[in-house]
Amino acid sequence: MSDSPHDALRTDPDLGPLVEAHGELTLDPAEDLFERLVVAILRQQVSMASAAATRERLFDAVTVTPDGIRAADDEVLRDAGLSRQKTRYVNAVADAFLEHGYSLAHFADHTDDEIREALTDITGVGDWTADMLLMFAFGREDVFPVGDLGIRKGFETVVGEGYDRAEMTDYAERWSPYRSYASLYLWRADEDIADSVDEVSED
User: Which one of 45, 64, 147, 181 counts the least CB within 10 Å of its CB?
Assistant: First the structure.
């Protein structure tokens, strides 16, 4: 096996040029799983600017911990910019964390699939959100978030068009066990999405 993800991907005909162009991109895991999950929910189906504004208002209004969210009145969350649906989602996340004691340490010995199953059992947490958490909270190296639009656009740019999601997933096997790193480069293959991804990866 190569010494590093970057060594492995440099030899790949699809991604090698991107590694050379963008340098050694890294996964920088978040320190607080709950905060990172709440931010991921805020980013669902809205622009980055909208999510950032809501994040700022929410973090100013409440203590973003499971206890802090549950102690806050729903109207406070709504006033911070959360929709009725996202208010329900962050409350469900808080309840799950309080009930199960979830944290980065709690999941330290779990497989990616076990973490994904536990997270997607929470109302409001789907596969995309779980994949973002696996990459940007847990720092797991072999995640391929095929449900992400940016990944699909980058794949089309680098590999070509005409692949469905199952075929993309099969193709991405060649980048295992470093598919998370491959994803970082796919996101940067299309200039239209690169700036947004920089924000997605930040806490």
Answer: 45
Q: Is the pTM of this model over 0.85?
A: yes
pLDDT at 191: 66
Give the single-character DSSP code of 174: G
**In which element (H, E) is residue 196 found?**
helix 191-200
Tokens 């990616």 appear where? 112
84-133 pLDDT, tens per residue?
A: 999 999 999 999 999 999 999 999 999 999 999 999 999 999 999 999 99
Cα(167)–Cα(141) distance, integer angstroms: 21
User: What does residue 198 show for φ and ψ, rounded to 5 degrees?
Assistant: -55, -40
Q: Which whole-number Å values give the CA distances from 70 to 17, 67, 89, 96, 151, in the listed order? A: 48, 5, 12, 11, 34
Amino acid identity at 203: D
Angstrom distance (rounded) from CA 65 to CA 183: 30
Place of tokens 């993800």: 5
Per-residue pLDDT reduced to its tens digit, 141-176: 999 999 999 999 999 999 999 999 999 999 999 999
CA distance 110 to 13: 33
Interatomic CA distance for residues 165 and 108, integer angstroms: 29
Instruction: Judge contact between 41 and 93, C-beta under 8 A.
Output: yes
